[in-house]
Amino acid sequence: MADPESPDEDERPGYEEARAELIEVVRALEAGGTTLEESLALWERGERLAAICQEWLEGARRRLDAAIGEEA
């Protein structure tokens, strides 16, 4: 099931790109000085980026498990 708010696969950032942007979002939130609306937008972007990173990590885990299973 596709998430209507998530970008197409072609537009989805790679793990490193998503992680780097997530770090910047966290820094911006920790620094403060943003309006409530800006903070909410940053938080929502951070949630999406965290989900993208999690998907990449889960995919990598599945690939490792499959590779280990083939060796056994």
Share of helix, binned: over 70%
What ranges have pLDDT less than 50 throughout 5 or more consecutive residues? 1-6
Mean pLDDT score, rounded?
Answer: 89
| Most strands sheet | none
Count of helical regions:
2
Query: What's the helix-strand series?
Result: HH
Secondary-structure-derived class: mainly alpha
Distance between the termini: 33 Å
Strand proportion: under 5%
Q: Count the beta strands.
A: 0
Shape designation:
elongated
What integer value in Å does the Rg equal?
16 Å
How would you sum up this structure in a few lines?
It contains 2 helices and no strands. With 72 residues, it is an all-alpha fold.
Please give a structural write-up.
- The N and C termini lie far apart (33 Å).
- The protein is mainly α and 72 residues long.
- The model is unreliable at 1-6 (pLDDT under 50).
- It is 74% helix and 0% strand.
- It has helices at 15-31, 36-71.
Features:
single chain, 72 residues, mainly alpha, 2 helices, 74% helix, disordered N terminus
How are the secondary structure elements laid out?
Blueprint: H1 15-31, H2 36-71
